[in-house]
Amino acid sequence: MVIKNVAVIGAGTMGSGIAQVFAANNFNVTLVDTEQTYLDKGIKTISSSLDRLIKKNSITADQKDTTLKNIFTATQLDSIPHDTGLVAEAIIESKSAKLSIYNKLNDIVNQDCIFASNTSSISITELAATTRPDRFIGMHFMNPVPMMQLVEIIRGYATSDATFDIIKQLSISLGKTPVEVFDYPGFVANRILMPMINEAIFALFEGVASAQDIDTVMKLGMNHPMGPLTLADFIGLDVCLAIMEVLYDGFNDSKYRPCPLLKKMVAAGKLGRKSKEGFFKYD
Ligand SMILES: NC(=O)c1ccc[n+]([C@@H]2O[C@H](COP(=O)([O-])OP(=O)(O)OC[C@H]3O[C@@H](n4cnc5c(N)ncnc54)[C@H](O)[C@@H]3O)[C@@H](O)[C@H]2O)c1
User: Fold this and answer.
1) Of 39, 91, 160, 166, which cross-links 73 as Cys (Cβ 3.0–4.6 Å)?
2) Is the pTM of this model over 0.90?
3) pLDDT category of residue 49 using cuts at 50, 70 and 90
4) How far is the centre of ligand 1, averaged over its atoms, from the C-alpha of 26 (Å)?
């Protein structure tokens, strides 16, 4: 199956990056969000990202124009062409919101269209259950999508080998490195990353060291490019908490209990960079 038309649902942080990567590789992309202002913001993000690549001599100005011309925006799902081969969904991390999108899309696109979710933590098997389980898969890109090499490809319980092979090859054609992962809470990336971040928050909560010093230990001692608390601020503390809750509920294991300090900070609206304050302050 040759995929030429791709729909990306959600024009936020991840959706804009995913749309950019597909468009830069000559796919026709329909980018959908609920309001034109979100789409305009997404296109602006893509344009700035392409400008940075021009500055680094990674692409030409013509390639930027072609990439932008490959993206069509829409506020309605039924603007997506019937012959779209892949829907890459990157809306908010809500199971009910995602299920509602897939149930609507099921009647809009052809039966052979593959549904891929960029969810960080929701079960692919559960998302797939009501639509097309064999043609449903997780395509977990990393942030920022144009820069990060990895795509975790998550096989739901019923994902077919044919679907997996198509998405694996497609990821390679985007210049990414796909890794096959089975559907368990947090997949691989967040199952390992989030408990580390949560443990760093426990260390702060228990007064083991200051936020700055915890990050310094991990940067200088483990050669991490950024400390876990800075990374938590970058990801968003609400997102970190939601993923810890998925791990905790999914495994019923107390080792995944979210740190009370993380819960308190989310309740206080200290969400990290996006609220200008988390473990650190931002202008
Ligand atoms: N941010 C990250 O670092 C990261 C990394 C990997 C995966 N993810 C996952 O990617 C997904 C998107 O995350 P994000 O950080 O881009 O979120 P975001 O909040 O930046 O963007 C979400 C976008 O979806 C739109 N949206 C919400 N409901 C919609 C609907 N019904 N139809 C169309 N658009 C809708 C919103 O308007 C918003 O523009 C989530 O599932 C998240 O868990 C995020």
Assistant:
1) 39
2) yes
3) very high
4) 23
CA 96–ligand 1 middle distance (angstroms): 14
Is 190 labeled as catalytic in the residue annotation?
yes
Of the candidates 141, 80, 139, the residue with the CA atom closest to the CA atom of residue 106:
80
Q: Residue 83: which domain range?
A: 5-182
- In the reported structure, the alpha carbon of residue 39 is separated from the centroid of ligand 1 by a whole-number distance in angstroms of 12
- Over residues 246-272, the pLDDT tens digits come to 999 999 999 999 999 999 999 999 999
Residue 202 lies in a domain: yes
Residue 114 domain flag: yes
CA atoms within 13 A on the CB side of 102: 27
Neighbours of 217 (CB within 10 A): 17
Cα 235 from Cα 229, distance rounded (Å): 10
What confidence tens digit (pLDDT) does each residue in 206-237 have?
A: 999 999 999 999 999 999 999 999 999 999 99
- Let me know if residue 278 belongs to a domain: no
Residues 97 and 120 in one domain: yes
140 is catalytic: yes
The domain that contains 262 carries what CATH number? 1.10.1040.10
User: Residue 32 forms beta bridges with which residues?
Assistant: 9, 74
Ligand 1 binding site (Cβ under 6 Å of any ligand atom): 9-15, 32-34, 38, 90-93, 97, 101, 118-120, 143, 235
- Which residue has the least CA distance to atom 15 on ligand 1? 13
Whether residue 208 is found in the same domain as residue 258: yes
Residue 246 corresponds to which tokens in the numbers above?
A: 């998925």
Is 120 a known active-site residue?
yes
